[in-house]
Amino acid sequence: MNVLMFTNYAPADIQKKQGSVMVNEGWVYGLQQNLLRIKGIKLHVMYPQNIDKEPIFESISDNFVANGYYHNSNNFSDEENIKLQIKNYRYISDIDVIHIMGTEFFHSLAAFHAMNELGLNGRTVISIQGLVSFCAKHYDYGVPKKYCYGFSIQEIYNGFSSINKRKEEFEARGVFETRLLSECKNVIGRTNWDKRCTRLINPDIQYYHNGENLRSSFYSEERWNIENCEKYSIFVSQATYPLKGLHHVLSILPDIVKKYPETKLYVGGKSPINTSHWKCNSYANYLNALIKRGNLEDHVCFCGSLSEEDIKKRYLKSHVFLSPSNIENSSNSIGEAMMLGVPVVASNVGGTDSVLENGKSGFLYPLTESYIMVQEIFDIFGSNDLANYVSKNAIEYSSHLYDSNENIRTLLEIYRRLSNS
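Now predict its structure.
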């Protein structure tokens, strides 16, 4: 079976050759590697690349081919250019199934239109990752308006967008996403949230449920242990923009520190602390203001960019993994933490209740009630028995949810159904 997969980024093999330390969308690479273990599968991956780079066509292995196609910008102005490049792909006539990974960017719509013009709509399926049209509604929740609409010196000097402008960019991309979902016949999702949202756009769509595979290192036998973690440490894996909700945590962190003075919050990403005001964007300035207001300088550590192995080590060292997002479909970070057995506390938003059993494999709290999050963290900090109970259940539950063999079997069955349509 020949599978043509459209992705947002180059395959990890090519990213690494180009010197990338942080491979984008590692879970997509994990899916590709699992597919390539199936006898009879040949995988073709097409991805957008900037027009100022040399076009890439590379046979990574006998059954894995990657092809970069040009796009100019994050708008739909070059749809015809993208469609022409895709339709000229040398193996296009041999393709059995087309799998478009994600709806968030305009090139997914261009790829879908190319397939439609080739008469391959029925053999095309689109995986829901995040739903940008719905995420836009929650983008800046909890951020004061003066930070949303104002521009920092960095944003003015470098031509960057304010928080509100970035929200508008989400909304603009959501227009393409809505059009894509309204026109396509088949989607793959994994939560009750993405199923309902998709059917709000297109009630007649064929929805397939398929669990997600995580990055390969999280399937190892290494597990979290209460005796080996850094007590009273909290890990938030990313916080580069308001949707991920770090500002909610910093607002209530003084309450946690008051009861547990040893508390340390570790955050994936660049630090706004001790950075000149003019070098920070508006959101970083807001985070910095919260840190200073709460006297949290000694309690917050930004870890910078973390490799897959580094982030795994950070999970294992943490007493609690915290997901304070304004919205999520199914957070890969939550899944990775659960697979390792790290006690998870998460905002009950989007599809999070589809991946975590509240009170058993982790704890959920209402986004508008951060004080509940505080108490749940207190419960874990204060009871090793509870932490171990949650850890054990998280490993058991996630091992079924992210069972790579079962998820690949389900995906292959979807492919077979589409290829016979």
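The mean pLDDT is 91.
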